[in-house]
Request: fold
Amino acid sequence: MALRIPVLVRGINNLSDARYCAGMGADGLIFTLDPELPGAIDPATAKELAGWVAGVELIGEFKDADPEQLVAVAAACGLDSVLLHEAPFFFPGMHEPLPFPVLRETDLLTALQALIDPDLAHELRSTDFAPAGGALLVTLPAGADLVGWQAQLGALARQFPLWLGGDFAAADLPGLLDGVHPAGLVLQGGDELKPGLRDFTGLEEIFEALEEVE
Reply:
């Protein structure tokens, strides 16, 4: 299934989600690997789930893990990149740049502030700590007025490789993509009702809305 924009799915914690999202054309699966974050899974589980899928990027999500721990977990799980919640200056022990691309998450208010604060924009754009590449993820708050924020989000997308996350409604996606032109979307995975049983109704609507029309 070809999608009109790159898609990552975060919170992957079961085989049903991993195989479904890979089959629907997701470009990457995000495993929450920092034990301080809700819904975290251990590296062994992430590695086992990753072994059942192919052709997708494997991403580990961390809050403020030690850089050496990041590298060690990435190697153990075969990660291609990481999603970080904190900026690099929260890593006082970092002496060497991370050897993989980094997707940095920030809140909408901070991201919008970067439109008028050159120093903040420079900090968010910095790839000194991740020379392999980087991008910015802005997760939109629930109930956000996507139409009202399109101009500002579009301006951000012209400054940064901008990914958008949030609880999207399928009907809003065409307008959002055309108005903002983000680098990609980050969707949210879910839990199985019981082993092997998962309701994909919400995700299915999103994937269908994103399907490339030939």
Summary: DSSP finds eight helices and eight strands in the chain. The two ends are 11 Å apart (CA to CA). Strands lie at 7-10, 28-32, 57-62, 81-84, 102-106, 134-139, 162-165, 184-188.
